[in-house]
Amino acid sequence: MAKISVVVLAGTEAHSDLARVLNALALVQEAKEAGDEVELVFDGAAVVWIRELESPDHKLHSMFTAVKDRVAGACEFCAGAFDVKEDIRAAGVEFLSEYQGHPSLRQRVEDGYEIVTF
User: Domain 3-117 maps to which CATH number in 3.40.1260.10, 3.40.1160.10, 1.20.120.350, 2.60.120.10?
Assistant: First the structure.
């Protein structure tokens, strides 16, 4: 069984960003189906994706919903910087702030997670 921390860093501005999020969600879904220990982390500009993916009209909404139970959280510092804290709260997603207001990727490595970034 693998231990995977999928970290999305992509913003929402470019079509290529959508592809990155799609690939991240696909990896989480595949790992979940395989019984792996997998988590999804939104960091940097990616914190805005939570608001986007929560919309039932978004093309990736159903894919996000299928793996939402694997969302570890969103960077608290970045959520404030991108002014989406209320959207993240409304989505029921936790804030991560283990290291100076940010998720601790180092701690995840220490805990045996393979870090995959998109």
Answer: 3.40.1260.10
